[in-house]
Amino acid sequence: MAWGGDGNRSAGRAWRWRAITALVLVLALVITGYLTRQGGGRLDEISRQMESWLRPAQVIFSYSLIWVQNGVDAVAHWRQVVQENQRLRRTVEQMSLQIAQLQQAAGENQSLRSLLSLRAQVPWQTVAATVIGRSPRHWNREVIIDQGAEAGLRTDMPVISGRGVVGRITAVGDGYSRVQLLTDPGTAIGGLIERTGDLVLVEGSSSGDRLRVRSLTPTPRFREKDTIVTSGLGGIYPKGLPIGTIEKVEPNQYGLASVADVIPAADFGRLEYLLVLTHPILPPVSLP
To answer: What one-character DSSP code corresponds to residue 149?
Structure first.
């Protein structure tokens, strides 16, 4: 009996749902027919009402779409900017390298031109050489060049750069030679004050980037900015090679200039291309 009662109740519930569904459909048909008979005005009013309800959501949705699109565009633009920056950075690095190479080539060209210009002024046979070694412990005392006995070099031959005297050869080997620099404290060379013709003695100094000059006359007459050239005395350096310019004068107890600091004519910090003076060029002998 219980089972039969449950079945009746289930059948009753199913019938009620069918009735409700049919009623909703009938009401929808009635409302639709009514609105149709009333014309489009009622439908328009409902549409406007629905539109007013949905407008805020539409605005929010539209702005959300715009924001998303702007974000996508910004990301794409950022990627383009990053790629462009990387390309420009590579271009700048390449141009910087090219500029450095051009500056180095220009500096080498200028050094060679100065060397050739000074060579033309010195009536000596020369051998071109390149600095291939320099000890950090003896930076201001010695360099090694790439020419040696096979090029006819011997000890005590003078060495110059395109700007002036560098030093003299102290040792010769196969394919190399050692050059004692003018800035070595153990170096001394006879000089001449170009303005007055006074003889002076130029020595290396412990500072490494300056020379010292001492007067060889009882009444020295040198002063700041005086140019000093080789005197030609001593049997090593020919006369007239640039040595340096007087920078600072130290007067003695009598107020006379006796010692001074000299700025070397040669750039001892950047020695690269040098000339070794092997022997003087003798003028042709004219026969009677």
So the answer is: G
Q: Give residue 103's identity as a one-letter amino acid code.
A: Q
Q: With H, G, I as helix, E, B as strand and everything else as coil, classify residue 169.
A: strand
> How would you classify the pairing of strands 176-181 and 142-145?
antiparallel
Could you read off the pLDDT tens digit of each residue along the chain, which spans 288 residues?
444 455 566 656 666 666 666 666 566 555 665 555 555 555 566 656 656 665 676 667 677 778 777 887 888 888 888 888 888 888 888 887 777 766 666 666 666 676 777 777 788 899 999 999 998 888 889 999 999 999 999 999 999 998 999 999 999 999 999 999 999 999 999 999 999 999 999 999 888 789 999 988 777 788 899 999 999 988 899 999 999 999 988 876 665 567 899 999 999 988 989 999 998 876 555 545
DSSP codes, 86-126: HHHHHHHHHHHHHHHHHHHHHHHHHHHHHHHHHHHHS-EEE
| Amino acid, single-letter form, for residue 270 | R
Among 1.10.620.20, 3.90.480.20, 3.30.420.40, 2.40.10.340, name the CATH number for the domain at 122-280: 2.40.10.340
Please report how many Cα atoms fall inside a 13 Å half-sphere around the Cα of residue 167, on the Cβ side. Answer: 28
Alpha-carbon span 22 to 2, nearest angstrom:
31
Q: 176-181 and 242-251: which strand pairing?
A: unpaired
CB distance 205 to 185 below 8 Å: yes
SS (H, E, C) 14-35: HHHHHHHHHHHHHHHHHHHHHH
Up-side HSE of residue 273: CA atoms within 13 Å toward CB?
16
Label residues 202-235 b or e (16+ Cβ within 10 Å = b).
bbbbeeeebbbbebeeeebebeeebbbbbbeeee
pTM for the complete prediction?
0.61
